[in-house]
Amino acid sequence: MRKLLSALIAATLTTTAAWAADGENVVIEPPEAVSREDGLSAWDRVYEVASHPRCSNCHVGASGRPMWSGPSYGRARPHGMNIVAGESRIGAEYVLCSTCHAYRETLNDMPHAAPQVAMNWQLPPAEAEWFGKSSVEICEQLRDPERNGDRGLLELASHLDHDLILHWAWNPGGGREPAPYSLQEHVNDVLAWGVAGFPCTSDTIEGEDG
Ligand code: HEC
Ligand code: HEC
Q: Is the entire prediction scored with pTM above 0.85?
């Protein structure tokens, strides 16, 4: 594990996101060493992002029902119009997400219109359920390759599979609240948490002689 980590740390990767809504590139540069304490503080910030409506509205479980929550929605409730993502997670069994959540280049500045940021707007796998979960629950599942899509630290940090959606989450428009911090700060926090050994507050710490 230690070897793997140093190999990961040796790799410095820059994702060029020319299409990013904010026009900025995300730099993936893991720090050399991070204490457990600093790793836990970084996790706290990662959790603030993960539990924010711009992320958790999609990160729902087996029900397949996306959420409408957060101040711009008022009361938290399942997606209107009986939308269900199904096992396909794209609504193939019912109504396709892309029927309304198609991609368009213009800003999503109309309140209560369907966000249109990517043709592959869809729910993550049910194991990536975050909505309503505690910090410890999300911490334990996000470091578990069996539940995080078999991702290592760099893959987790780069979120390559849904970059467009992530860039939208920090710049949503239409009166929606952006996710806290910035995409770059979030990436840095994920990297710091990983380099610290993915600590969760639920871990039992072995004694000096243990
Ligand atoms: C439109 C729905 C949607 C939104 C909004 C969304 N995600 Fe995701 N997320 C996905 C999908 C789909 C996947 C699965 C991608 C894959 O595995 O290829 C995913 C996977 C992930 C993963 C991989 C680990 C795992 O548990 O599967 C992380 C980390 C992640 N998202 C972070 C975020 C963060 C942080 C935000 C908010 C800033 C966010 N997501 C918002 C749809 C979404
Ligand atoms: C018939 C049109 C329609 C379809 C089909 C549809 N949506 Fe939506 N969706 C909307 C509208 C409209 C909103 C915004 C509602 C508002 O802001 O009051 C929305 C908002 C959302 C949000 C909240 C985004 C946020 O954080 O502000 C998520 C998540 C979402 N949809 C996921 C999905 C998924 C996943 C599918 C496919 C399973 C889907 N939607 C299918 C119309 C649709």
A: yes
